[in-house]
Amino acid sequence: MSVIGHGIDLVDVAEMRRWIDDPRDPLIPRCFVQAELDEIGVGADRIERLAGRFAAKEAVLKALGTGFGAGVAFTDVVIHRAPGTTPEVRLSGGAAKAAAALGVTAWRLSISHTSGLAMASVLALGAETHARGS
């Protein structure tokens, strides 16, 4: 396995709260699928967990080198985490096509958050022959 891409993102939790509360452009339906919202739940640290998942989505697309737009939607990247397990990256649509074109076969994702900041770091892994720069 080799590293095809790496992405990292940092999100200000207070800014995330403002984005969520903005009635002009609701962030949650644009960025999260229902399964993610169900996993996040409604606890006191809900915004921090949303910010962590948002950072993870951004980090994934940085690792792919695509960003959002140009055929890739926020909901093409789903972050799943069952209790007691590490978070998983699940792709569909344009994000899945970009990953396949690069030869990504696995992901390693880490998410962390506090009341003020959320961050995520992700490695896109694949076969040695598909690594960028090879």
UniProtKB/TrEMBL annotation:
Residues 7-104 form the 4'-phosphopantetheinyl transferase domain. Its main location: cytoplasm. One of its GO terms (biological process) is fatty acid biosynthetic process. Mg(2+) binds at residues 9, 58. GO terms for molecular function: holo-[acyl-carrier-protein] synthase activity; magnesium ion binding. Keywords: Cytoplasm, Fatty acid biosynthesis, Fatty acid metabolism, Lipid biosynthesis, Lipid metabolism, Magnesium, Metal-binding, Transferase. It catalyses: apo-[ACP] + CoA = holo-[ACP] + adenosine 3',5'-bisphosphate + H(+). InterPro entries: 4-PPantetheinyl_Trfase_dom, 4-PPantetheinyl_Trfase_dom_sf, ACPS, Ppantetheine-prot_Trfase_dom. Belongs to the P-Pant transferase superfamily. AcpS family. This is Holo-[acyl-carrier-protein] synthase. It comes from Rhodoplanes elegans.
